[in-house]
Amino acid sequence: MVSAVSRNGADMLIDITRTMYNGMEVWPGDIPFQQVSKQFGNFTSSSVTMSLHTGTHMDAPRHRFKHGKSVDEIFPVIVPALVKKQGNPAGKAVLLDRPVTALQAEELVKGGMVLIGTTSISIDYGESLEAHAVLLGAGIPVIENLELDSVPPGDYIVMAFPLKFSGADGSPVRIVLAESPQDIYSFRQEGNDD
C-alpha cells in the first residue's frame, strides 16, 4: 500500500517502500523475516532477523562483485526520476513496474542513468543474472521490491536512504517520491502544526 504524507489535503511525499512483516515474501531460500518484541517496564524493544535483501532494498555492486562498492560507500540518493515512463535517463533514476533484460540494462547505463528500481523481487527476469551483472558492474545501485501500484507514470524526485552497514552487499531502504522540490521543502507530517 502506498502511503502519502499530506498537508491541507495535497499529497506532498509518496512513500514507495513496502511494509515489512513476519511471513512476508523473501527470495527463495533466503533468511525469513522475523520481528520479535519484548517489554522492559514501560518500554518496548524489538529485534529483527532478516536478509539485507528483504522487502524494499538496495543491491550494492558488492552483491554481485566481491570487490564492488559496498552499501556504506553509497551516499543517500536524491535525484530526478522517471517513474514508469520512458525518457532521457541521464543523471536520473529509472523506476519500473517490471524487471529488465541485460540489453535494456546496457542501454540505460549508456544513457547515463544513476539508479534503477523495480517493483519485482529481482531486477532480472526469471533466473537470469545478466541485468544484475550489467548494472552492478557499472556501479549502478539497484532497488528491488518497490511499491508503485498507485503511483501515476511521470517525472518525480526520488529520495532513497540505505542503512550504513559496513562492508555490506545490500540494505533495506526507505524510498519516497516528490513531484517538485517545493514538496520536499514544505514537508510537514499530518497533524504537526509546529
Backbone structural class:
mainly beta
Name the shape in a single word. Answer: globular
* Assembly status: single chain
Contiguous low-pLDDT stretches (5 residues minimum) are 5-9
What CATH calls the topology is: Glucose Oxidase, domain 1
Q: Work out the number of β strands.
A: 11
Fourth CATH level, the homologous superfamily: Putative cyclase
- Spatially, the strands of the biggest sheet line up as 5-9-8-7-6-10-11
Order of helices and strands: EEEEEEEHEHEEEH
Number of helices: 3
Query: How is the main sheet built?
Result: 7 strands, mixed, barrel
CATH architecture: 3-Layer(bba) Sandwich
Helix content: 10-25%
- What count of domains describes the coordinates? 1
* CATH first level: Alpha Beta
Q: How far is the N terminus from the C terminus?
A: 28 Å
Overall mean pLDDT score? 91
SS strand fraction: 25-35%
